[in-house]
Write the structure tokens for this entry.
Amino acid sequence: MSLELRAALAILLHNRGSVYRARNELDAARQQFERALEINTERKNRIEIASNHYMLAVIALQRQNTDEAVRHAATALEYDKVSENSVGIGHDLFLLGRAEVAAGNRDVGTEYLRRARSIFAALELERDHEKVVEYLQRNNLE
């Protein structure tokens, strides 16, 4: 299969994973994201690798598998940092913060959440900034 077709397949798999996740078919979603991750890893597409890990972290958090959620979110963060993807970094930090709080690591999670809030404020992403603020308030983290 050509590189262009593999790239298109990875996008299709990621999108299918998103549909399965929206339908709460988490096993099917995870399989799609993992297949997309394999292709993106072969292609060394860092931004897509970050996106695949992010979604795998979301699924793990939905399943209350906090260790896996933290691992995938931290990996997504590292790939977004290398790619200098500021918006992605903000989302990774927000997810990583939520996963750490769910794992019982409130102080660590709160620090990630504060960093996410600062990034969203600096980028003037008001909706994302508000989500972090609401989460912090709802969970008595500030």
User: Anything to note?
Assistant: The chain has one domain: 3-138. The domain at 3-138 is CATH 1.25.40.10 (Serine Threonine Protein Phosphatase 5, Tetratricopeptide repeat). The chain is about 85% helix and 0% strand. The CA atoms of residues 69 and 86 lie 20 Å apart.
